[in-house]
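Dear colleague,

Thank you for sharing your sequence with our group. We've completed the structure prediction you requested, and as agreed, I am returning the results in plain text so they can be pasted directly into your records. Please verify that the sequence below matches your submission; if there's any discrepancy, let me know and we will rerun it promptly.
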Amino acid sequence: MTEHESAASAAPVADDRAAAAPQPVHVDLDWPRGWPFTGATGVLKSIPEDFVVDELPLALPNGQGEHVWLHIEKRNANTAWVAARLAEFAGVREMDVGYAGLKDRRAVTTQWFSLYLPKGETPDFRQLDNEEFRILRQQRHERKLRRGDLAGNRFVLRLRNVAGDRAAIEQNLQAIARNGFPNYFGDQRFGHYAGNIHSGIAMLRREIRVRNPTRKGLFLSAVRSWVFNQVLAERVREGNWFSLMVGEVAETQVPTGPLWGRGRPLVSEQQLELEQRVLEPLAEVCNGLEHSGLGQERRDLVVRPAAMQWQWHDGGEHPDLVLEFILGPGFYATALLREVMAVTEPDLSEPQEQEAE
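Please find the predicted structure tokens below.
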């Protein structure tokens, strides 16, 4: 084979590689709103006390068992950081500490933790009380507290220096209280500048290797949640996000969207057609999720908050607005707030955790 022939035969290989190169995925987190845009603005989390979350447990400890359950109030502290302090104090592995969900760092929150301590004397965890967290209750129970073991979260949020059309804000608050709001995953899940999504897509393409199982799960969750939000956004654009479509999952009372994974789609007909149309440009991403070990699931498109009420605290031209409501596990308070006004938060040097779940 001559030098010229070698070069000629190599050319198509280079072309094929160029043609097969992964295309960049456009990530847009500016989802359409379910209710009219009010144009209003407000400030959240000026201080941790502006964001109060109380976890509503599925069950309470019964006083017997190999696990010690702790009811803890934390202020401006990460859930995982508190768990690490508990493990260090008790002399156990961090994996032996359980909790039902993450709670915001810049907030005042209450939640339950559990520690596996089958033998020996139970330490008095109140010795750990400090400015960042304190023990409210300590009692034994028969099993470990696991992610998702909660009935929901009660929120009390104070929005300061609200500017905008108060009548428009009231109108949206009343609509949310009656009919709910689109169940978007909050931006916290996606990381700064959607970094978790970009890292997750790169991981699925095998452009990067992620060995840490926690980070791997975080990236997969971000990509999967973004795919769900894409479908919900299209339903919002079409104005049918709160209505059941032909082909919805049997016996469901609330419209749902896909949490993508391996297996046959759980919907059919009109619903399936819409979802296939929306996700066709993301076929590569969806295929990667299927091969990551995740299975097909569904998530509600609509959140209906319980016990919702609000009060204005007049402070002249820019009053404060205090909102109270209860959300089920995995639902985002920030998704509710974006239907009311554009919210700004202090620019903290440390990244925030996922919102209460």
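Summary note from our side: The mean pLDDT is 91.

Kind regards,
the structure core
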